[in-house]
Write a structure and sequence with these properties.
Length: 186
């Protein structure tokens, strides 16, 4: 088999791999791209995708209430707003330089921001970005199916390998014909 025929065969194989991978994973790439695009704008969404971080009265931690007291205030605040369920804190995001804390809750996509010094409620907001991140990284499938992170691991591995395959095959689909034309002229 001649050199040109070998190059053409490789090009056909790459085209088939590129097309098949794209067809099989189209819906996943669609969700990853749209969620990634929206997540890129989360801090510039005027508080719609991710609530703006509010500013408390002081950044001096010595003047702050205890985390336990602030935790109690946050739980009471969110449970008074949504009386039909109970809440559990997933994480606490301390913004020392802003003088505030964000209490983020498990399975609710809500947060309560408090002033660290006096415990005043600065905001109660919906974290749409957390839902979008769950879509983007496949966590939503784990949550829905009740698995312990395995689906997310498989999902991110498949998507990462597929993106690598797309990059390699896409480059070759662009470069291969150029190389063949150049070799044909020589």
């Amino acid at each position: 088999m001649g050199k040109r025929k070998k190059q053409a065969k490789v090009l056909r194989i790459f085209r088939k791999v590129h097309r098949t991978t794209g067809a099989l994973l189209f819906i996943f790439f669609f969700f990853v791209s749209i969620s990634g695009l929206i997540l890129g704008w989360k801090k510039n969404s005027n508080g719609y995708i991710l609530p703006k971080t509010q500013t408390g009265t002081t950044a001096d931690l010595k003047k702050w209430l205890s985390v336990d007291s602030l935790h109690t205030i946050a739980i009471t605040t969110i449970e008074n707003k949504f009386t039909d369920r109970t809440f559990q804190v997933d994480r606490i995001d301390i913004r020392k330089e802003k003088g505030s804390l964000k209490f983020i809750f498990v399975d609710s996509f809500y947060e309560v921001q408090l002033d660290g010094a006096n415990g005043n409620v600065l905001s109660i907001g919906k974290r749409r970005s957390d839902f979008l991140e769950d879509i983007h990284d496949g966590s939503i499938l784990d949550d829905y199916l009740g698995t312990d992170g395995y689906i997310k691991l498989i999902y991110t591995t498949v998507m990462g390998v597929s993106l690598f395959i797309f990059t390699v095959t896409g480059f070759w689909l662009w470069y291969g014909p150029k190389r063949m034309r150049k070799a044909g002229k020589a």
